[in-house]
Specification:
By secondary structure, the chain is α/β, with parallel strands linked by helices. 44% of the residues lie in helices and 15% in strands.
Length: 355
């Protein structure tokens, strides 16, 4: 029978022996699971990992030895570093981190929520000063609960979870939140299109359950409601925030025949780029026949033909504010939830229908 241990409070108090006792295995078995170089039965490994989670066990012995200290590093966690939305926030993070005397560590998750959790856990072990997670959050209770757990765990070791471009985890959760007026930007853009005479607007790039997409679609719907209109469900297409979806979605709209529209609201500038390509191939003139708008105002928006009307997001300031508020949270206790403004940028891809 495994030796009984007293309850362990806090991640730094846990030891291999505590994990072994909780899992009902030997300390050497726990070490084999941690090392990953010796075969362990799947059921045994599962019990050990479950015990580690329950005890909030931090694997990295060096990190435990550091106590409450941090390692002068800011971790930046994104889906895909090649995406221009993330790249420009990353620039702001790196510039502010450098000004604060911190190194910036980049971690990519490829859109996998479980990888986000794994990266945050690793950064906790490494004692990063701040762990900055960028991009929309998924509506998944287990995921949100685990992120809440990490926020508290990071706080206990003197670190900070920072959420950029996603909503807060809830009251009492020790996390810094830096958002932008996502819904307001979509509301302003849709209102501009509607008041310009576009009453049938297609929406490309709805990603159900992703906070970024949900907020943009909410602004799109709210603008219609304010003017006593209702968007046509047939003109709202699910997809991804990608150029390929914009291309395929626009082709689908054109092929449907019954779904007449005079404007396309693309969920991102990348989606808009794909839509413009499809419309051009179909010999549909933009903006003479169809107006197209995007969201984000990444540099690509100016390079497209015609130049894209879009919603400007203050990317670099999001990154700078994330680092600044997290590292100076004791000096700025009342400023740990910041919402930056957005605004529409009118270019050549839109005009009044029939003009």
């Amino acid at each position: 029978m495994a030796k009984k241990t007293e309850p362990v409070m806090g991640n730094d108090a846990s030891t291999v022996r505590d994990v072994a006792a909780r899992a009902g295995v030997s300390a050497s078995t726990v070490s084999r699971v941690l090392g990953g170089t010796y075969p362990v039965a799947a059921s045994t490994r599962a019990r050990v990992l479950k015990a580690m989670r329950e005890l909030d066990y931090v694997v990295n012995a060096h990190a435990r030895a550091l106590g409450g200290s941090t390692n002068k590093t800011v971790a930046f966690v994104v889906d895909d570093v090649t995406g221009p939305f993330y790249a420009h926030i990353a620039r702001g993070v790196e510039e502010q981190a450098s000004a604060e005397g911190r190194l910036c560590m980049l971690c990519t998750t490829h859109g996998d929520p479980q990888r986000v959790l794994a990266v945050v856990e690793t950064m906790r072990e490494q004692r990063a000063d701040a762990v900055i997670v960028v991009g929309g959050a998924w509506e998944d209770k287990a995921y949100q609960d685990r992120m809440t757990h990490f926020a508290h765990a990071l706080d206990r070791v003197g670190s900070r979870l920072v959420l950029v471009g996603r909503p807060p985890l809830g009251p009492g959760v020790p996390a810094t939140v830096v958002e932008y007026d996502n819904e307001g930007g979509a509301f302003a853009m849709t209102t501009h299109l509607l008041t310009s005479g576009h009453q049938r607007i297609a929406y490309l790039g709805r990603v159900p359950g992703l906070s970024t997409s949900d907020q943009r679609l909410s602004g799109f719907r709210r603008a219609h409601e304010l003017l006593g209109l209702a968007p046509d469900p047939k003109l709202i297409l699910d997809g991804t925030f990608s150029r390929s979806h914009g291309y395929q979605g626009a082709r689908q709209l054109l092929a449907s025949g019954a779904a007449e529209f005079t404007a396309v609201f693309a969920g991102t500038d990348m989606v808009a780029a794909g839509a413009l390509q499809a419309l051009r191939e179909a010999r549909v003139s933009v903006p003479d026949d169809v107006s197209v708008v995007g969201y984000d105002d990444v540099p690509l928006a100016l390079d497209l033909f015609p130049a894209l009307t879009t919603v400007n997001v203050p990317h670099e300031e999001l990154g700078r504010a994330a680092v600044r508020l997290a590292l100076h949270r004791e000096e700025l206790p009342g400023s740990q939830h910041l919402v930056l403004g957005t605004h529409i940028v009118l270019r050549d891809s839109t005009r009044r229908p029939g003009h």
